[in-house]
Amino acid sequence: MDTENTNITGKVVVITGASSGLGEATARYLAERGATVVLGARRADRIQALAGEITGKGGQAFALATDVTDAAQVQALVDAAVERFGRIDVIINNAGLMPLSPLAMRKLDDWDRTIDVNIKGVLYGIAAALPHMQRQQAGQIINVSSVAGHKVGPGGAVYSASKTAVRVITEGLRQEVKPWNIRTTIISPGAVATELPQSVTEPEIAAGVGQFYAAVAISADSFARAVAFAMSQPEDVDINEILFRPTRQDL
Ligand code: NDP
Question: What total of structural domains would you count in the chain?
Fold first, then answer.
């Protein structure tokens, strides 16, 4: 077997935000290496098409429309994975958005959505997966932070706060889940080419972010490979954080 597939083949992996970008690329990447992928996002047509594409190539996939701001829907996604495939080995709490704007613009709706999806969505994923992983005495929780979880700049206060929260929650989780042999991983990407810049609601800021991404962003496979690296370690090795950027990104 290709060494890269070690500890990937046969694993049941739940991915939130699987309808585009990092989640979609990771679903394809892991399915090609023999993982069973369970896909959640609001755009049901997209995740169903992706699941169809994966199963059409002989892989294993299942899609369920999921809004991560609703704890019951996240629980239903995780429970569906366990009911259909017998267990959950990995959850990738990936769904997120980045509606950058200066605080003085008072975009309260953007702040609420950022906190609801980027923080509470991750917490709901943890809440849904933990009981299964505790029972299994095994599992891996991969939470997606960002370079923005390490630094903040103008316009990024709420987004960086949400991504810092993801790192803090994950480190707290890491220390708490020792009794159940559960691994925790933070993945903090720099600019990766996805639909994320489209979540900026201010046209002028969106244009600037779009230009920055066009100049520096790298392929979403970079993230998928980081996930595969963390997953494929022997079970007694816990990769706690991966921070990566495009080589040409200076921020
Ligand atoms: P995309 O916009 O391409 O993907 C975001 C995903 O999140 C979509 O699948 C979207 O699905 C999903 N999503 C958004 N809101 C919800 C919701 N309420 N419920 C369920 N799913 C939701 O961006 P990325 O792939 O880049 O983003 C993935 C993660 O990576 C995010 O957490 C982002 O912050 C993080 N990240 C990305 C970086 C980048 O440069 N691309 C850099 C650092 C971090 P749908 O709309 O169908 O619900």
Answer: 1
